[in-house]
Amino acid sequence: MSNPEENPTTEETKPTEETKPTEENSDTEEEDIRLDLRNVKYDIKTLEKHVDDIHMKTCVNTQILTAEFCVKYILNEDYMSCIEDTYCIDTGYVLKRQPHLTYKEIMHEYSKINDGKGYSHGI
Prior knowledge:
Blueprint: H1 10-13, H2 23-26, H3 29-32, H4 44-49, H5 56-62, H6 67-74, H7 83-88, H8 91-97, H9 103-111
């Protein structure tokens, strides 16, 4: 028989309370900005929470979005990730990638913003 001191028990290798993620430490800012848009579908609330950290082109290509979200963020140049996005992301691009939306829905949301003046070149 082997000596118990020579073979560590499974208890010693199990994570302790200190190393187990808790609600308090598992929701760190670093984790918040790492949305996996290509592999996970997120709800609008989550996307809005992380809107400053996501690439709009990837978002419109991989997520199911509302007309309101598209007008507020996808078609808003302030949230575009790079200069290329300002040229390629417009209403037609959004409607092609979000086939459940209609031009009428986009325009309805657009009319709510800035008395219909909006904030995007894409409409």
